[in-house]
Amino acid sequence: MMKKSYLIIIITVLMLVLTFGFIFLRNETANAPSGDSSEQSEVAEKQTETDNEEEAVTKNEITYSDDGFSPGDITVNEGEEVVIINNSSEALDFASDDHPTHQTNSELNVGLIEPGERDSFSPSKGEWGYHDHLNSSATGTITVR
Which residues contact 97 (CB under 8 A, 6 or more apart)? Predict the structure, then answer.
């Protein structure tokens, strides 16, 4: 009699374990990725393209903050646009060297850029110094190949 009740308990426990195991595995399978490698490749490819586009956009950006220009010196290809972003708390007067005449390269004489705003230009081939006319100690160089 005792053996029979143990046997019933063991069978009941095994059935419960198998039932919960089946439910658990079924949920894991439903939540698993599809495994379709072509879809995964397309997603990875699109992410790489997006990363490359973002890099292309940001490589020609000069950001101005209360600490000055970053990067201070950049190199771009002829015909590429250079974007100036003013993240400082003051207006920026982006201008070419020499201070205060700004006659080295008039293409760089963008003028006032208010905080939070941006402007752009496409410089010609050469090496050009620039500065903030309102803070002439903030300087940098653009090299155009």
Answer: 104, 128, 129, 130, 131, 139
